[in-house]
Amino acid sequence: MTTKETLGIRSFRVLTGAVLITWLILPLVPLAIWSFAKGWFYPDLLPRNWSLRAWEYAMSDTSGVLASLWLTIWISLVATFLSVLVGVPAGRALGMYKFRGKEIVELLILAPTIVPGIAVVLGIHSIFISLGLTNSVEGVILVHLIPTLPYMVLVMSGIFANYDPAFEAQARSLGASPLKTFWYVTLPAIRPGIIVGGLFAFLVSWSQYILTLLIGGGRVETLPLLLFNFATSGRNDITGAIGMIYILPGIIILLLTAKHLSGRSGAVGGFGQI
Amino acid sequence: MTQNLKAALLATGLMMTPVAGVADTADGAALNAMNWDQVVDLAKGGEVNWFLWGGSDNINQYVTEFVGGILKDKYDITLNRVGLSDTVEAVNIVLGEKEAGVLDSGSVDMIWINGENFRTMKQGDLAYCGYTDILPNNALVDWNNPAIANDFGVPVEGCEVPWSKSQFAFAYDTARTENPPRSIPELIDWVKANPGKFTYPAPPDFNGSVFVRHVFYHAAGGVENLLGDFDQARFDEVSAKTWAILNNLEPYLWREGKTYPASISAMEQLYANSEVDLTFNYEPAGVGLNIENGVFPPTTQGYGLTDGTIGNTNYTIIPFNSPNKAAALVLQNVLLSGEAQHQKALPTVWGAAPAIEVSRTSDDVQAKFAKIVKHPNVVPAEELAKAALPELQASWISAIEKGWLANVGQ
After folding, report:
1. Residue A235 contacts B where some CB pair is shorter than 8 Å
2. Other Cβ atoms within 10 Å of B164 Cβ, number
3. E-strand spans in B263-347?
4. Using an 8 Å Cβ cutoff, are A238 and A62 in contact?
5. Of A40, A221, A229, the CB nearest to B55
6. Measured between beta carbons, which residues in chain A are less than 8 angstroms from residue B273?
7. Torsions phi, psi of B305, nearest 5?
8. Where do the domains of chain B lie?
9. Which of A125, A219, A237 sits opposite B96 (nearest CB)?
10. What is the chain A residue with the closest CA to B101?
11. From the list A47, A130, A225, which residue is nearest B100 (CB)?
12. Residue B367 Cα distances to B87, B309, B342, B358, B373, angstroms
């Protein structure tokens, strides 16, 4: 009986997995074909001619795609790290404690996800100019925290809402230092949240366009900036090539963290290594 | 206390040192008083940040490799090409910097620009002006030509330098369409006879807007009455006719005119995939590049209209707060040179019509221009020029765009 149930659940899981993969992979197929196409018109099933030109351009120094790839990875990684640094204590405060003005703090943290970025970006720009933070990678990383933090804090406050601080008290009573307590007790318990929130933060930072353009003053050329140039000009071949490069880090991170996102890893126990 | 004083003195000393040693390439007025050799000396070893539309690999390669190569080899200047999806993004950066009080250390050294964006820059005092005479290659520019001296009706007055000329042209697929309409009245009949096979990008898209102006000129019975300052009474009369024509046409457009493509590239995709049979562009050379890049079917042919098409000039502008004005001036001078304009005119590079008078260049350059073999599918600039229509002043254009949104695109 139990084996039958497990089998049913397993086949359901395989099925949903297959559907998900199809949804994720299928839209990428035309993108990949486009990147090698020269002239692909409806109703042709396949391009009339094949060409490596889009890839040659994407890999050339002129396009700046590779330099931009490393820069974008660096910016998103640092923005994610800072988001974790701020988001974990903030999430703990919001998830575990009641205090005056908590609703206002929550609203302020969520505000960047509610207010459209385009509406506030000019105001942010003038503030960043007066602080001398424009045209630099540091400024861009800092401004990316505005859209990444809400996701991080939201995920972490959810984790801490179900977190029992008594574990920490026990560890302390058994003689662990605060650092040890955090490392061996708190961190394992909240790690799934850090991974999920960090993934969100990375992807949100990864896809920023208008904030990067204005605060970076065009000097900080991340991949979305290069991609939008060609996506808006109808060059599907080069958009395809840059697009393939653009989605790569997202896929790699998704594969690395997949088991923490699935139902099998709960918020408690069974923490695999990344 | 003495410690604080020492620290303060040290800080002041540190702050003053660099100012004394470095010549200021941000000071436009000082540059305007220099001769060309002094400007070049000042620019050497510097950098220039040029913001321009980045959606064409051909243009990007021309700018980074050809122009950037000349700047590096001859002047030791590093060209940093910053690709934009829309020129207004660069204008907004300069505007934001001005509002924040950044007067001599802006991030934009040069923008590829014209029309509405130039008007914004000029009216907002965002442009560095009065330098054209110090550029040696300025002699190749015919400033007596009103189409050069005015950018969409706004007098240039030394605030920008021409780069290329272009003129609106249609294109069709010879494999699909036998006789494309060759004037606006013919087009109106053709659209009604071929429902669903024509559309135009919704203004204020640059190309959609200029298409609507062709209909506007037709409704006015000619452009003569529309030149000069904005005239509300005349606008009301002509625009009423224009909206009537376009609204009559709407049911025969692609998807019954319930929706319009948002951009010219969206319309070009519709054309490439046979959803519509005609396309157009303010840059006629685009047909050649689009065929070579596989965006258009190779049977695409560009053509002009017998009742004329609108032409314009595009320019490069230096923002008032550019910190690298000397290098930007050297860049502009290189762009105006016969060699750079010739390279840009090659159909394999770009195919853009020169903004300089080729007859004023050296014999060598003239001979090279004469040898250019035009792309067979691109309508020659000389042929288009036989029926050229002027652009309206920017105030007319924005009124037409707003009127279209309120009366046709609603």
Report:
1. yes
2. 24
3. 278-281, 300-303, 309-317
4. no
5. A229
6. 41-42
7. -110, 145
8. 3-164+313-378, 167-311+384-409
9. A125
10. A130
11. A130
12. 35, 29, 10, 10, 12
| Each residue's pLDDT tens digit, A71-125 | 999 999 999 999 999 999 999 999 999 999 999 999 998 898 888 878 888 889 9
Portion 271-290 of B in contact with A at CB < 8 A:
272-275
Evaluate whether A220 touches A141 at the Cβ level (below 8 Å). Answer: no
State which CATH number among 2.40.160.20, 3.40.190.10, 3.10.400.10, 1.10.600.10 fits the domain covering B167-311+384-409. 3.40.190.10
What confidence tens digit (pLDDT) does each residue in B316-375 have? 999 999 999 999 999 999 999 999 999 999 999 999 999 999 999 999 999 999 999 999
Q: CATH topology of B3-164+313-378 equal to that of B167-311+384-409?
A: yes
Residues 6+ apart with CB under 8 A from B106: B93, B94, B97, B319, B320, B321, B322, B323
Chain A residues touching residue B293 (CB < 8 angstroms) = 38, 53, 235, 237
pLDDT digits (tens, 9 = 90+) for A14-49: 898 888 888 878 888 999 999 999 989 888 889 989
B3-164+313-378: what fold? D-Maltodextrin-Binding Protein; domain 2 (3.40.190)
- Residues of chain A contacting B101 with CB distance shorter than 8 Å: 129-130
Instruction: Name the residue facing B265 among A122, A233, A238 (closest C-beta).
Output: A233
Q: Tell me the count of A-B CB pairs closer than 8 A.
A: 108
- pLDDT tens-digit map of A43-59: 888 998 999 999 999 99
Q: Give the DSSP letter of residue B65.
A: I
Residue of chain B whose alpha carbon sits nearest to that of A231: B55
- Round to the nearest angstrom and report the end-to-end CA distance of chain A: 35
Domains (ranges, CATH) in chain A?
53-273 (1.10.3720.10)
Helix (H) or strand (E) holding B164: strand B161-167
**Residue B300 φ/ψ, nearest 5 degrees:** -75, 135
Q: Could you tell me the pLDDT band of residue B271, with boundaries at 50, 70 and 90?
A: very high
pLDDT tens-digit readout, B85-110: 889 999 999 999 999 899 999 999 99
